[in-house]
User: Fold these one by one.
Assistant:
Number 1:
Amino acid sequence: MAVTLFKYPYTFPLELGGELAGFQLAYTTHGTRNADSSNVLWICHALTGSSDPTDWWDGLVGPGLHYDPKDWFIICVNVLGSHYGSTNALSINTKTKAPYFQSFPDITIRDNIYAFELLREHLGIDHIHTLAGGSLGGQQALEWAIIKPDLIENLVLIATNALHSPWGIAFNESQRMAIKADPTWQEARPDAGIEGMKVARSIALLSYRNYDTYDFTQARDSNEQTDHFRAATYQQYQGDKLAHRFNAFSYWTLSRMMDLHNVGRNRPSVTNALSQVKAHTLVVGISSDILFQPSEQKFLARHIPDAEYQEIDSLYGHDGFLIEYKQLKQILQAWETKGIPQGR
């Protein structure tokens, strides 16, 4: 699926006081939009995801799957700061005629939603039937449902939260410390900090999975084994794998974006913000998630009016939302058959 670019040529002020000298958003679409936009499914991606959900949510989105392009007009946008086509630290700052590199400003979830709004208006979409996302994607979806409560009919929030926890911030800071410890990080070059990012990804995997996951999937080969442990080679592999498709600047920007997520900022309170959501809302937690613990999703379900909470029983921790397609499909189908309009 081809990626389309939306270009905004004007200065774009940011929530925390910085600005972008214009920006672009990379997005993909699947399916055909109805004349009244009644079949729009907008999906928000997670930390290192791209604008193509058939790539990273391939058990849920695609022909013959739960979200089938023959029924839905599916759109997903790469967030600002990411590596997959939207404006990021490697982009040219039109004011300086050089890449942003370390001068790239902090981007918040809220900044992204206002950028998405510009794209939505450009596309003439005045109604989103279903808005869905997990993790960082769920943070985006929630913020949007608060900012534009009358726009979104149905909301699916998976393994996400109302504000990022101190535990989550600590994990992200540890990863950024690894990037910062890379001596190349201060250099103005596209691969700056890449070795540090490999370590950061290794740290992240520990929060995406858990003790039982590793005990099951990375067990010793034998009692006599003394080197080349699966758990060790797996960590190295995951760092190398990400280094081939991502950059440390984007990793830094998006982990900061996650830390800055707080729907209560500059509003009366977190609970007041959640009370503004008007969409029919499904909140899904994962039983073994140690990064976005189920208590955070239960909090959302308690304070979003008439929201429903369901839980995936998974060995795979936070990554369960990218793995447990069968359970997720069953939860979605049950929720959708309770009288929620399908718009198809």
Note: The longest strand covers residues 19-30.
Number 2:
Amino acid sequence: MQVGEFCNREVIIIGGDESVKAAAELMRRHHVGDVVLVEEREGRRIPVGIITDRDLVLEVMVPGLDPEALAVKDIVTSALSSVRVDDSLFDALEMMRAKAVRRLPVVDADGALAGILAVDDVMALLTEMLGHLSAVVERQRSREASQRP
């Protein structure tokens, strides 16, 4: 299973010079917990950072900073981790665990933004898969019970 099969291809993006308030407004409008900071390079959108709702709270609200005066690029605090579309889903989950992140931008072979992988989306997928497995077990039980005298 490759990351590209499961990632969300509808990524909300923002430029680094946009205000933190603009980032928060995008999150609210699109009902998401993050926006990906991108730079245009040779016609491609290259992810260079990610801003989460948690970042807004910890980096802006708690210290009492003005979200309208602060640029998105000013609150990106660490190097961006990303995965490629052809990476294994299990390797991506291991990276998320090791780096303690809930979201990873997904890039294509040229490094351009292709999607985002979020723990919430993976949990929904796994829940669906477990439901299917449970249904298989139940059908097997029913079939065995109907075959007994």
Note: The two ends are 42 Å apart (CA to CA).
Number 3:
Amino acid sequence: MRERLESLRTEALQEIQSATEMELIKELKVKYLGKKGELTAVLRGMGSLSAEERPVIGGLANEVRAALETAFAQKSESLETEELEAKLQSETIDVTLPGASLEPGSIHPLHSVIEQIEDIFIGMGFEIAEGPEVELDHYNFEMLNLPKDHPARDMQDSFYITPEILLRTHTSSVQGRTLLAKEGEVPVRIIMPGKVYRRDDDDATHSHQFTQIEGLVVDRGVSMGELKGVLLQLIQKMFGPDTEVRLRPSYFPFTEPSVEVDIYHPEKGWLEILGAGMVHPRVLEKAGYDSERYTGFAFGLGVERVAMLKYDIDDIRHLYNNDLRFLRQFKSV
């Protein structure tokens, strides 16, 4: 039995030393020291020993158990240390590397222009009015002196949903809604920013969806001179105090007389910037205003056109493509 215990100790110590995983150490511990392990099996044979041999073999068995438990503890500690070092090595963070940078955002150039224009008009006593983008034909056309058979409807190729519902072609549709809500009260001084839609081929200067800001003033004694003063204030604040402006006769069914407004660009010459005019008497009457007592003016500008001129943008599609290389240029705007 002595030889068996010595052999068991030698065999177990060799297996413990050659183990490379904690799972294997657990298996060896069960194999040698478990209730059904090899050491327990050897000790079961002590009943056949003489009274003189039992204490000697018992002492040896305790030495073997102690040696194996010490070997298991040391090997377990060694493997745990190795596993920890390997994990730390695999998860090492180089603190000298630069951290991930968070790029600050900025206002989109279109929104920047809208906010600038709103600030200018609020400073002149205007209010901001809004309306639905899915609009009734009644407000989009008929309230603006464009009956069903009016040829000017061909100027605005529209997205119709039903014969009476369409995507608005201009924010002028908000005019009728606002005037009706006012129930004949004056003064009316509003601007109407928002998206509009027309059946157009997208290219460098056109888009099927774009942004407009319409303006409307209705009161007693409103004149063409006041319209010119308001537009001059807008243009010179947007493009600089020395910007030259001219008004050319034009035609719009909802204003009479009507004008196109141009600004002078040092390199490109005269450029059309917006349309305007005195509110047509029929538009006032449809909204419940006495055109003999009240007059008004209206104007409409494309925000994209203003942005392109102000920031020297050569393609309207840049404003919609969300290209960061383009948008980063406007962080300070």
Note: Residues 276 and 299 are 4 Å apart (CA to CA).
Number 4:
Amino acid sequence: MKALVCHKFGPIDDLNVEELPSLEPQANEVVVRVAAASVNFPDALIVQGLYQIKPDFPFSPGAEFAGEIIKVGAQVKGWKVGDRVIASCGYGAFAQECRVDASRLIPLPPEMPPELGAAFVMTYGTSLHALKDCGELSSEDTLLVLGAAGGVGLAAIEIAKQMGAKVIAAASTSDKRDLCLQVGADYAVDYTQEDWRKQVEKMTEGKGVTVVYDAVGGAYSEIALRTLAWRGRFLVVGFAAGQIPKIPLNLALLSERKILGVFWGQAVRQNPQKHQENMALLVDWFKQGKIKPVVTQTVTLSQAKQAIQDLANRQIKGKVIVLPQA
């Protein structure tokens, strides 16, 4: 089988497509023929050695996928060869075959093409966990989403609207902001402008937002924190800007703001039942046409490393899908 392979931590450009032996499952695993996989920001981090997970070499990046089971481990129950599935695997999906623990599998709904299934688990799972489990978002809230035109940002917009909240989408270009409004955001703001905090205040009639969803970090975080109203919640989702901000804690004290970390992967491991409940809700919303991943580009395995680089450079809107069999 062919796979995009990382032999040592380093530049994304060091990745290469190689021919590898077909995979065999461990007792609690299955092997899936990957129909589609999606590019996520952790893919760029993991190959550079900057992510909290550091796999043994060699490995393939790619944290989520959709496909068909072709081999089943001896102790696996409830799954069989031929089942269509989606899963988050951490790494290994940018390959024609992926080995994954059976506990991480979710049935691929008949209504969901593999290209959409591959873009579903991480982005929507992360955003629902952030907004519902951590942020306790309600219809009384106004949500500010940083990096709103990315995969998790767009998912956060859709989910927040399903939960009844108002949404202000922060994105850096007019085409990104237009996409956010098309997906359902109530307002959009250019957070590269110096006065963007004042624009948010105007949009909220001076009250401020009640929840911030920050997947960007860097210099934007402190300004976003300052937009929070009394007892607002600041959700720390990621650092796409490449810098982990140092937040003055007096900003939390002055308005009794809460700063909440969001670590979806660990939350899945800590409470797999909650994860399954969240995914069931998301699948139900998808079937009702209430949410749908925004796929802006499909690429082959040989083009995947450029897609990872483009995402790291924040040049991507929505989701890019890798088709390993193409």
Note: The two ends are 12 Å apart (CA to CA).
